[in-house]
Amino acid sequence: MNKLIVKKAAVLGAGVMGAQIAAHLANANVPVVLFDLPAKEGDKNGIVTKALNGLKKLDPAPLASKDKLKYIDAANYEEHLPLLADCDLVIEAIAERMDWKHDLYGKIAPHLAPGAILASNTSGLSINTLAESLPATIRPRFCGIHFFNPPRYMQLVEIIATRSTDATTLDALETWLTSRLGKGVIRALDTPNFVANRIGVFSILAVMHHTAAFGLGFDEVDALTGPRIGRPKSATYRTADVVGLDTLAHVVKTMQDTLADDPWHRHFTVPAWLRALIEKGALGQKTRCGIFRKQGREIQVLDLGSQDYRASGGVVAEEVAAILKTRHPAEKFALLRASQHPQARFLWSIFRDVFHYCAVQLEQVADNARDLDLAMRWGFGWAQGPFETWQAAGWSDIAQAVAADIAAGKAMSDVPLPAWALDAGRTGVHLAQGSYSARRTAYVPRSALPVYGRQLFPERVLGEGGANPEKSGETIWENEGVRLWRLPAVDAGIGIVSFKSKMHTIGNEVLDGVIAAVARAEAELDGVVVWHEAPFAVGANLQQVGEACAAGAFDLLEATVEKFQRASQTFKYAQVPTVAAVQGLALGGGCEFVMHAGKRVMALESYVGLVEAGVGLIPAGGGCKEFAIRAADWASRSATPGEVLSFLQPVFQNIAMAKVAKSAVECVEFGLARDSDSIVFNANELLYVAIREARAMAEAGYKPPLKPRAVPVAGRAGIATFEMMLVNMKEGGMISAHDYRVAKSAAIALCGGEIETGSRVDEEWLLTVERRLFVELLKTPETQARIKHMLETGKPLRN
Ligand code: NAD
Known about the structure:
Elements: E1 9-12, H1 16-27, E2 32-36, H2 46-57, E3 72-76, E4 89-92, H3 98-108, E5 117-120, H4 127-131, E6 142-147, E7 156-161, H5 167-179, E8 184-188, H6 196-213, H7 218-224, H8 237-243, H9 245-258, H10 272-280, E9 292-295, E10 298-303, E11 308-311, H11 318-325, H12 329-338, H13 342-365, H14 369-380, H15 386-392, H16 395-407, E12 430-431, E13 434-437, E14 442-444, E15 474-478, E16 482-487, H17 488-491, E17 492-499, H18 508-524, E18 527-530, H19 542-550, H20 554-573, E19 578-587, H21 589-596, E20 599-609, H22 623-636, H23 644-656, E21 660-661, H24 664-669, E22 678-680, H25 686-699, E23 711-712, H26 715-731, H27 737-750, E24 760-761, H28 763-778, H29 781-793
Parallel strand pairs: 1-2, 1-4, 2-3, 4-5, 5-6, 7-8, 17-18, 18-19, 19-20, 20-22
Antiparallel strand pairs: 6-7, 9-10, 10-11, 12-13, 13-14, 15-16, 16-17, 20-21, 23-24
Helix pairs in contact: 1-2, 6-13, 6-14, 11-12, 13-16, 18-20, 19-29, 20-21, 20-28, 22-23, 22-28, 23-27, 26-27, 27-28
This protein binds nicotinamide-adenine-dinucleotide.
């Protein structure tokens, strides 16, 4: 099989993973049949129906839009097995029991379509053993497909071949998972728990071991093992609570049962306190009580000394915090090793034992060091994999230190480091030519699958080298805020506009840059894309706005808003196609740029919204104007062309409540993007797709839209309707007087000003209305207080 086409998929098992995998398939426009056991009572699809309802409530949302739910059909093994005949991909995600999985394979095998791929989401069972119950005709199309929870958001999928899996089928599956579902795929070997869980769970066990050895509190360890060392906020123990303590114990048990020869085998057991929690039913987040619990407003943590819960604090000692802030990794590790503080000794110990484990096990668990490091980044959210951290800190110094600790009996196992790790002159495992493979004793380059050609700037591991987009390509023009550049090897005729500001905020230099860069592109190029790494743009540069307010420079502010509007209009009316390549946050002014581009190419994980109300403002970079025009347009195509107001209603609510669309799909539903825009599941493909879109638009004879001249607006009657809603909310105490004022300003701007309902206006009129209202709001002390608070705390002020 060279190309995988999935017209329909089946997921077997509607539990935690199965239901969410089905949701993500539906996100990618793949219709799904979701199976589970027949319910013993009532509707036989009862288990699945309940799981589907559960999908709507989960946070973070597995569905990119609730509307996607209708593409998942409920089914049960008793009545619906013939439905499998239409499915090109069947993912099994039932409970982790070899005998149950074998039974099920026996049941479904006769119903599978001749070319279908069957894959198991098992976390740790042997894929080769699972294959044994399958007929020989199916085995070449069977493999492991290990998603991580939550599957929409966790990038990693491990695919695992059996001895008989067909190689081209695996390539086709990897290609499809990468591009269609947006995943980071690594090839894992058929060893217990595969790569990420094997290393990740060992890391948790090492943390538990040293927590006890150094007598630290669980909250203290979480403060040490979270963002301070490049790991997620939930650190170690809260992650365990989220995963479920029973699930964690189960995975550890798999390691104990299947890895008898592992030199660390005696550590593959959960501590007595954890077993006691499980016995009590304190399983973590799902039972609202585990290592942590919430009592009223207080977060509490289990204290082993008192055998009771206490308020969670978790303080990192100043000395240790300072070490962790050291910029140079070699220096940081030297300081950690030299410190006598128990927190520092703890940290060195957990790093040492994970380095030791990875070096010894690399040959057994992964093809090469890059796969192992990427698995930890994508599956556990580590900023760097363990080999990267080791390499950054100076390979041979760390190798010597680890070896010395092993010799001194300080490490969790006395097995020596493999010889390759101690090679004289070794500087690391990731080099420009590839990453070290202990199995092949060679450096392995990246996969040559064509799908990776779509990733112009793929995620790189430290030491690998590779181009930095900020310094790549040919610069055509730049100022302080914007660089206009191109990648001649991809398309010399398409310019790339990248913002240089922090978090890509939009200040004066960016506005000047955008206007000038688009003008340059009109003269010399065939199209432009706006692209930089995430976030797309978190909004206007509030610092500049705050300073101008403080200086009372309101004329200057009005001029800046006018320039903002001009920049938006520049995108909309450019003589060449303009494509916004959106990923991550696109808020406020960033959202307005997105709205005005000729076309949008959006990563699925795009979070877009007009959030100005949070700082006491209304959208005035053309956002209100654009919705006034769109509402009139939507109305004109509806059964009630005069009813602009009903189309403005949801828009008004979104703006008044500063609501953010939580996926590219929702972005279309909010009217911020169009049905014809492209949604890209793998953000690494965004630039490639945007350039290709711009080129296609140019080739198709791009023409900018005509400026609307006579837009019917909702006017006074519209404003009065919105005001009635607001009065009720104010009287009910739901909004403050200033919220009222801000929302009313938005209502006026959306309704085209306080003019006769049904009046016809042009774009300039609408822009003037929103600009004036914006500046009036800026003059109020409440809005100024909101801006100040946002700059100081990063959070909105309710006043
Ligand atoms: P779960 O317990 O939430 O769901 C399991 C489902 O299997 C249930 O819907 C149940 O009705 C069904 N089931 C039980 N016995 C069955 C049988 N004999 N025949 C057919 N169906 C049966 O489990 P889960 O967490 O979704 O895990 C499912 C699979 O995914 C397991 O193999 C697990 O190891 C793997 N996995 C889990 C996670 C995770 O974080 N939960 C992550 C990756 C992989």
